[in-house]
Specification:
The chain is α+β, with helices and mostly antiparallel strands. The chain has 13 helices and 14 strands. The structure holds guanosine-5'-triphosphate (GTP). Guanosine-5'-triphosphate binds next to strand 8, helix 9 and helix 10. This is diguanylate cyclase.
Amino acid sequence: MTDHTSVKNFHLIDQLATLTDHRERDGLNMHLAQMLMDVIKPLSISVSLVMSDRNDYRWIPVLHLRPDASIQLRDPLHADFLSLDQVREGTPRFRCLEMNLPVAVDAAESGATHLTILPLFVGGAKADSGIIEIASSNRLPLHELAIVDRMLHVYRNMHSMFLYSERDVLTGLANRKSFEETFYKSLHENPNFYASWAKGIAPDKNIDRRSSETNEHFWLAMVDVDHFKQVNDKYGHQIGDEVLILIARIMKNTFRGYDRVYRFGGEEFVILMRSAWHDTAMATLERFRKNMEEYLFPQVGCITVSIGMNIINGGDPPDVVCNKADQAVYYAKRHGRNQVCSYMSLVENGLIETDVKDGGIELF
Ligand SMILES: Nc1nc2c(ncn2[C@@H]2O[C@H](COP(=O)(O)OP(=O)(O)OP(=O)(O)O)[C@@H](O)[C@H]2O)c(=O)[nH]1
C-alpha cells in the first residue's frame, strides 16, 4: 500500500469515527454531507426529508452544501407546509424511495449536472423518509458509489440508535427526554419568537385577534386520559396498553405532521403545536377530543380525555409551560372531564389564579 493510499484510508476511517462521536441526532445530516463532500468532492450535496399531513406528502429541503460551504438548514417544525413541493409518483426522487436504491439522473434530464439520489433511510416512500442528492459534473464511478453506500450504512445505524432513544417503546411516539430539546429548538429557530422569549415579553392576551398566519406561535397541550385506572382494573393491563397504542394512533391522525406528539409517561401525552391563533389551536384540540369521544375502543368502548393548553411565551422554561397546561387539565378534570381548557382563558376569566411568575413578570 502506498503512503498516499494509507493516508486516504486513514482519513476515511477518521471521518467515520467522528460520525459516531455524535451524541444527538442533530448535526448527523450535516456531518454526513461534509464527509461526502470531502471524500467525493461533488458540486453540491442536498438533503431533503418527507413531511406529511394526513395523505399529503411533501419535500422539505433541510440542507444544501457546496464546496464554498454555503449551507441552508431548516427544521420541519418551522416549514410552511403548503409551500413545499409535493412528493410526486414517477419522479426520480420517488423512484429512489420506492425502490430503496440509488437513482442516477443524467445532466440532460436534470439540467447542467448529473444527480445521484440515494435513500437516506431504508423503508420506502412515506413520512419520515428522506433522500440525499449528490450533484456532480460526471456520473459517480462505482467505487465512489460504494463509499457513499458504506457511509450511509454507518449513518443509518447511528440514526436508528438515536431514534430508539427518543421513542416511547409502547406507542412509538416521542418520549419525554426528547421534549425539552425540541422545546428550546422551536424557540431558537424562530427569530421573532425567540427574541420575545429571551426578553421575557409577556404573552399578549389579545393574541387571537392580532396574530397573523405569518406570525405563528407555539402552543403546548397536556392530554390526560379520563378514568384510565378503571380500564386497567376492569379489563387488565394488556388491554390498557392497547388503548394507549390506539390513542397514540388517533393523535397521529388528528395532528399535522409538523406538530409534535409525545407520551410523557402513563396515560399522559403532550402536544407541541404551531398556530397563529388561540382559537384555531383550541379548535384543533377540540377536534382531537371529539375524535376520541367518538372512537369505540375494542372491548372497552368509549374513552375520553381532558386537555389543558397554554401558549409558549414570556420566557417560560418547559417545566413552567407544562405546569400551567397541567393546571388547565386539573381544572378540566374537576369540572366534568372530557373537555379542552385554555390556561390563558381560565386566568382571564378569573377561574384559576396565576401562581407561577413568568421570568419575574406577572402575566395578567
Ligand atoms: N396499561 C397501562 N396502564 C398504565 C401505564 N402507565 C400508567 N398506567 C395506569 O394509569 C392509571 C392512571 O390512573 P390515575 O392517575 O388514578 O388516573 P385516572 O384513573 O385516569 O383518573 P383521572 O385522571 O382522574 O380521570 C393507573 O392505573 C396506572 O397504573 C401503562 O403504560 N400501561
